[in-house]
Design a protein that fits this description.
Elements: E1 2-6, H1 14-20, H2 24-31, E2 34-41, E3 43-54, E4 57-65, H3 74-86, E5 92-98, H4 103-109, E6 113-118, H5 121-125, E7 131-132, E8 135-136, E9 140-146
Parallel strand pairs: 4-5
Antiparallel strand pairs: 1-2, 2-3, 3-4, 5-9, 6-9, 7-8
Length: 147
Amino acid sequence: MEFRTINDNQSDFLPLLLLGDEQEDMIARYLNRGTLWALYDRELRAVCVVTEEGGGEFEIKNLAVAPGSQRRGYGRAMVEHVVRQYRGRGRRLLVGTGDSPLTVPFYEACGFRECGRVKDFFLENYDHPIYEAGRQLTDMVRFSLEL
């Protein structure tokens, strides 16, 4: 596996980023102010965008694994890479996600703990309903991991 920081042609990764965040204008809010990581294992397997939020906090804004590579450890490998990169540079890594039976257990298994919720986030910030695992997402669940 190889992790690369992507500085140029970030829009080339938009199809994969849209798996992690379904609305392009939402991605535009953080892509240019974050670091885009790509995980390659012979081919592109996953991407992740991490932003610096101040006060020693970094946030995973987008984590997406290519459809044919899901449930093969690439998402966890990306999270572990991000933790290694930001440990010692900050005090906490944050992530916000939908209240989904797919993503909540994933982040908990990676060591994140719930630290709050943003009521109606997906209803108020997206121009269409977002569904995951057959459930419409409404609130954002916030997680944190001490670095």
